[in-house]
Structure formats: C-alpha cells, structure tokens
C-alpha cells in the first residue's frame, strides 16, 4: 500500500500506521485482539498513533494475514476495501477523486508514492488496453495476499467513487492462487477474476478511463499535488547502485538470465564497474542474487503447491542439490523445512482447472 524507503537491509520499508488502524477499525477488531496481534510483531497501540506514524511493511503484511486467519475470513482484504475512502491515503486520495478525467487521476496516482519507493509500484499502461498493475518487487515480503487483494480492490473502489456509479472492469488478475470463495471476488469486481497470473492487475476499457471527473476541482488538485511533492522524502543516493540492481533481479530471475554482465549492461556500465560500485556500497552481486533467489523460493514454497524441483528451476537452479545448498546457506533451513514452517491456508491449493478462471 503506502510505503517509504527501499527494500535493502540498511533501510527497512515502512507503511503509514493509519492504514493498519483503518483495517482494524473496519474489521471491528476488539482491543484485546488488537493488542495480541501487535504483540506478535513487538508493537504497541501507541506505535499506531500520530499522523506521521509508520510501522515496518513486513510486519503490516504479516499482521494482515494473521488477522484474516484469526477472524476466519480468507478474503478479508478484499472485503474491507469497499469500506475505505480517499481519506485512507490523504491528499493522494482526494487528488484522485477531484481530477479532470479518470485517465489523469490514475496517471497521477501511479506516478506518486506507489512508484518512487522501490518496494512497490502501481503502474498504469495503455499499450493494448488500459490496465493498472500492482507489483511488490521484494520477494522477501511475504505472505502478501491480503495486502495485494486489499490494494487492487481499493483502487477499484476509488475508481467507482470517481465515476459516482458502478462500473465493471474487463478482467482482474492476481499472482496468487484462489484461497477464498470465488463469489466474493464476483461481488466486488463483477468481472472475470483470474489467479496464478503473471501480475496483479485491473484491466479497464478506453471508455471508462476517458470519463470526466464529476467533482473536478483544478485548484484543489493543484494544492494537493504541491503538498504531495513537498512531502516526498529526499532520495538517499548512498546505495543507489545496489537499489537499481535489486530492482532488476526479479525480472531477470524470471527470464533466466542473471549474469552480472547483463545487469551491468542494463545499467549502462561495464561488469567491472558494476562490481566495483557494489563493493563500495558493501554488497556483492553474487550475494544479492542468492538472496533474491532464496527470497523468491521461500515465497513459492510457502504460498504455492509447486514441487521443490519446480521451485528450484523457477529460481534459476539447474539442480535441486545446488538449490538446497544455497537455500540452507541463506535461510538456515532446507526447502522442505521452509515449507513445513508455514503451511498454506486451507483451500489455498486448488485444482489448476478451478483457479485458472
């Protein structure tokens, strides 16, 4: 959702505490349960107070998942999104509602905090068809299903509020498997919803994105966007190259070409220069690649029913033995132990024909 700072160990990503507070309130969480949940992450109620309060993003995602399990509501994030208004994200939400067109609203939204923090991006593209994509770049952040469903459904709710009427996307895609009643997704989106897809996305149509804003206020939008620009933290360039590499690695692991030479070429420098700059920032390409591969493997092991051999191949290992050695070195557990340490929710593993659409 709304994060600050990139996913390197030196600066942990955070989320504004008011998002978690709003989730607790919308779910009617009792004070006792709230305290119990926060205690699992070493947090207190006071940590959520204040307009500028923030908490670790990883803790937020785990708390969201634990809350869904405690309430026995597998589609909690999806269900709560419709109860959230523009106030959840402050100036950004109101700038969206009062934009000139939906196209302008989504464009400005995607160019704001979602896209500059290094951890997540809400991108908007109109190549073949208009679509909004929500991406979490850091595979070390998991489980993430509740956050992903909440975030996409919240964007859907903002669009409905902007239009002042119900609308139906063409399609909705999620990376994760279906884990709750399909009827809930039909009720929220009213369109085909597909799981285990390459990305998390809402597919729109040209007529919808061209819709004019019924509450358009150019003066208010200008004031709000100026406030957003002033509130952006100054970028930290002390680990700029490591951040850039960290952003490239997930796609390169997926395509199967993770050579340092190719990463360097994409960054416009020689392999030697890249290695030298990474050393200056206290990291090595080999270590970063292993960390990324093992983080992705952990997510596959704990959130899908893929076999260990399949996970190894998806993460770029030709042999399960080399994969196991690297995984143990990085996590201290074997792949089998990692899977047993976090069993999937009941119903998460479905027949492929069922969750394909």
Number of DSSP helical runs: 19
Rounded mean pLDDT score: 85
Counting DSSP E segments of at least 2 residues, the number of strands comes to 8
What does the main sheet amount to?
5 strands, mixed
CATH fold-type name of the largest domain: H-NOX domain
Instruction: Tell the overall outline.
Output: globular
Radius of gyration in whole Å, from Cα? Answer: 21 Å
Strand content: 5-15%
CATH class of the largest domain: Alpha Beta
Q: Uncertain runs with pLDDT below 50, 5 residues or more?
A: 4-10, 345-357
Cα(first) to Cα(last) distance is 26 Å
How many discrete domains?
2
Spatial strand sequence of the major β-sheet: 4-5-8-6-7
Give the helices and strands as they follow along the chain.
Answer: EEHHEHHHHHEEHEHEEHHHHHHHHHH
Portion of residues in helices? Answer: 40-55%
Structural class: alpha+beta
**CATH architecture of the largest domain, please?**
Alpha-Beta Complex
Question: Please, could you describe this protein's structure?
Answer:
The chain is α+β, with helices and mostly antiparallel strands. The chain has 2 domains: 3-231, H-NOX domain (Alpha-Beta Complex); 240-341, Orthogonal Bundle (Arc Repressor Mutant, subunit A). It contains 19 helices and 8 strands. The chain has helices spanning 17-26, 31-39, 57-70, 76-81, 91-97, 102-110, 113-116, 145-163, 182-189, 206-209, 218-231, 240-255, 260-266, 271-280, 285-303, 308-314, 320-331, 335-341, 352-355, and strands at residues 3-4, 14-16, 54-56, 120-125, 131-136, 171-173, 193-194, 200-203. It has a 5-stranded mixed sheet with strand order 4-5-8-6-7. Strands 1-2-3 form a 3-stranded antiparallel sheet. α5 (91-97) packs antiparallel against α6. The longest helix has 19 residues, at 145-163. It is globular, with a radius of gyration of 21 Å. The relative contact order is 0.11.
């Amino acid at each position: 959702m709304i994060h600050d700072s990139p996913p390197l160990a030196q600066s942990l990503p955070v989320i504004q505490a008011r998002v978690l507070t709003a989730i607790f309130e919308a779910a009617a969480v009792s004070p006792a349960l709230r305290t119990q949940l926060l205690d699992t992450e070493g947090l207190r109620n006071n940590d959520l107070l204040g307009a500028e309060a923030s908490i670790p993003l990883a803790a937020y995602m785990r708390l969201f998942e634990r809350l869904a399990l405690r309430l026995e509501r597998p589609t909690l994030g999806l269900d709560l999104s419709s109860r959230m208004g523009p106030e959840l994200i402050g100036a950004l939400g109101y700038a969206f509602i009062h934009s000139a067109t939906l196209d302008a609203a989504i464009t400005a939204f995607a160019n704001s905090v979602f896209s500059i923090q290094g951890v997540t991006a809400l991108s908007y593209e109109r190549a073949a068809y208009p679509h909004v994509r929500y991406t979490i770049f850091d595979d070390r952040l998991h489980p993430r299903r509740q956050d992903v469903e909440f975030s996409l459904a919240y964007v859907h709710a903002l669009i409905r509020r902007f239009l002042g009427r119900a609308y139906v996307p063409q399609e909705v895609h999620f990376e994760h498997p279906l884990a709750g009643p399909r009827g809930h997704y039909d009720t929220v989106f009213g369109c085909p919803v597909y799981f285990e897809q390459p990305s998390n996305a809402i597919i729109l149509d040209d007529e919808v994105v061209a819709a004019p804003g019924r509450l358009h206020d150019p003066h208010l939008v200008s004031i709000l966007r100026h406030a957003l620009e002033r509130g952006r933290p100054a970028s930290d360039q002390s680990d700029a190259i490591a951040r850039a590499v960290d952003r490239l690695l997930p796609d390169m692991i997926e395509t199967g070409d993770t050579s340092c030479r190719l990463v360097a070429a994409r960054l416009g420098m020689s392999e030697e220069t890249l290695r030298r700059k990474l050393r200056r920032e206290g990291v090595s390409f080999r270590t970063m690649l292993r960390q990324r591969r093992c983080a992705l493997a952990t997510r596959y092991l704990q959130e899908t029913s893929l076999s260990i051999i399949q996970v190894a191949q998806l993460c770029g290992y030709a042999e399960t033995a080399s994969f196991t050695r690297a995984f143990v070195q990085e996590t201290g557990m074997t792949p089998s132990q990692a899977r047993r340490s976090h069993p999937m929710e009941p119903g998460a593993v479905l027949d492929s024909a069922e969750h394909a659409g």
